[in-house]
Design goal:
extended; 7 helices; mainly alpha; about 0% strand
Length: about 150
């Protein structure tokens, strides 16, 4: 029969192993992938075009009444999962064009993590200015056109 000291030592070893696992470079990408899969599974069966679902509202739109650069993203993903590509384009064109790039970044992050390396994408100031400029221009355009 194990003594109390043995149980404490076992708990400490388990804590150390769990802590090491959480610090592994693959931990964060795997958690993001799992959360994305869970969200996608819920979204697949929930039509965000219809009221009465449990999906968060855009805080920017709630406060200002204006569309943010990502507004329509949830509807766009739902439409893509159901093969409605034309409707997805109407939901948010710029986000639809940026989606393959975001997916490539996630795959690159996952690949590095699974190989025991950390990876943090770096944007130059010029690239950051372009991304910010596109987001601002898209926000102004989509709110001006209506």
């Amino acid at each position: 029969m194990p003594t109390g000291g043995s149980c404490v030592a076992d708990a400490e070893r388990l804590s150390v192993r769990c802590s090491a696992a959480l610090r592994h470079p693959a931990a964060a990408p795997l958690v993001v992938l799992a959360a994305g899969a869970a969200g996608s599974a819920y979204l697949y069966g929930t039509d965000p075009h219809q009221p009465g679902h449990w999906l968060p509202q855009c805080p920017f739109r709630l406060v200002t009444g204006l569309l943010c650069p990502a507004c329509g993203g949830t509807r766009m993903v739902y439409d893509l999962m159901h093969g409605q590509f034309a409707q997805a384009c109407l939901d948010n064109r710029v986000l639809l064009l940026a989606s393959p790039y975001a997916l490539a970044l996630l795959v690159r992050w996952m690949w590095a993590g699974l190989h025991g390396r950390t990876w943090r994408p770096r944007l130059s100031s010029r690239a950051l200015a372009v991304v910010l400029g596109v987001a601002v221009a898209w926000t102004v355009l989509r709110n001006a056109v209506g």
